[in-house]
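in:
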């Protein structure tokens, strides 16, 4: 199985999404799935990531991909999920039944999925982190600095995501509204009648 993850912010999001998506697929019984990140065309921000024209370009260039995963930040925009569902419907019209395009918004940013896999400072409240519109600045960067990772690849994203992916069950227990929703939709596709 070939999986292409489409981030809104390459290369930073790649460092987080690849280990987490691999852990998700392993959890779903697909440990040998090949997970790649979309590098061409390189999307530069949420505006491009939500343009259907850019996404069709990606679909057209990747005929061997079975599963496309568009993963973006919610950024406090409540209507973002509806826009992603619209994109999924358009993709379903152009893809054959044996291929799938799914889109999910991390609540509120992908960095929260990484934080979910870690033991955080006792003074931090998980619901407050999830509700924060700017958790990257308010929590993730602070956590990376506390771990001494500010000057490491992706300002800590690479190592922290790899560590978090080792505790995938913890991520899924904390990120049910977004990550587990995506997981459930992938699982349903695996179980579809052929």
């Amino acid at each position: 199985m070939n999986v292409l993850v489409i981030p809104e912010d390459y290369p930073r999001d790649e460092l987080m999404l690849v280990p987490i998506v691999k852990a998700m697929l392993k959890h779903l019984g697909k440990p040998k799935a090949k997970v790649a990140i979309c590098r061409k065309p390189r999307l530069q921000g949420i505006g491009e990531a939500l343009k259907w024209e850019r996404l069709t370009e990606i679909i057209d260039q990747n005929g061997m991909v079975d599963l496309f995963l568009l993963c973006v930040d919610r950024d406090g925009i409540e209507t973002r999920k509806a826009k992603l569902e619209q994109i999924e419907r358009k993709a379903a019209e152009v893809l054959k039944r044996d291929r799938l395009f799914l889109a999910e918004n991390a609540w509120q940013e992908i960095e929260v999925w990484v934080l979910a896999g870690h033991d955080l400072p006792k003074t931090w409240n998980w619901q407050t982190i999830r509700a924060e519109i700017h958790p990257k600045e308010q929590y993730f960067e602070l956590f990376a600095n506390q771990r001494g990772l500010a000057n490491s690849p992706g300002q800590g994203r690479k190592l922290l995501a790899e560590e978090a992916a080792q505790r995938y069950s913890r991520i899924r227990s904390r990120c049910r509204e977004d990550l587990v929703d995506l997981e459930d939709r992938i699982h349903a596709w695996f179980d579809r009648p052929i």
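note: The first strand starts at residue 2 and ends at 7.
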